[in-house]
Amino acid sequence: MESIVLTRADNDSWLTDHKGVHREIWDNLKMPSLSTLKHDTRFHDSPTSIEFIWNLDAPRGRGFNYGQRLSAYFIAAETGNYTFYMACDDECELYISLDEHRENAFLLLAITNRTSYRNWNQ
Is residue 69 part of a domain? Predict the structure, then answer.
C-alpha cells in the first residue's frame, strides 16, 4: 500500500465556489470500460450530461454502456496520513493531486473488476 501525506490548506477561501461533486456522464459507449471512455472522442470536452451531487457515492440505476467522471476537492482537516476506499461497477480509478491543478494528478487506486456496492475490501 502506498502512503501519501496530505497537508491542510492554509487558505480555504477559494473553496466557496467549489462545493459538491462534479459528475460528468458519457452515454452510449460501445463497451462500458475505462479504455472505451478514455478513447471516446467526446471524452474531456463533451459529456452527455453534467450535474453536481453531494458526495462521491454516485446515484445507482443509470443503466448500461455509460461512463462517468466524478471530480471534487478534498481538503485535509489536518496534516497526516489518509486512507481512501473505492468500490465500483466494472472499473474505476482514483487520481489525486497535491494541489488544485488537474494536470498534477497521479493514479492512487485502480480497480479493474466489478465490486459489490459499497464493498470496500473486495
Answer: yes
Tell me the one-letter amino acid at 30. K
Which candidate, 24, 29, 49, places its Cα nearest to that of 39?
29
E runs forming strands in 1-122: 5-6, 21-26, 49-53, 67-71, 80-81, 92-96, 106-111
CB-CB contact of 79 with 5 (8 Å): yes
Residue 9: the pLDDT is 47
**Which tops the pLDDT comparison, 119 or 33?**
33
Per DSSP, what are the bridge partners of residue 66? none
The rounded distance, in Å, linking the Cα atoms of 64 and 48 is: 14
121 is a domain residue: no
Q: Into how many domains does the chain fold?
A: 1
Residue 8 domain-assigned?
Answer: no
Query: Domain range spanning residue 23?
Result: 16-111
What phi and psi values does residue 44 have, to the nearest 5 degrees?
85, -55
Q: pTM for this structure?
A: 0.76
Report the C-alpha gap between 103 and 37 in whole angstroms. 18
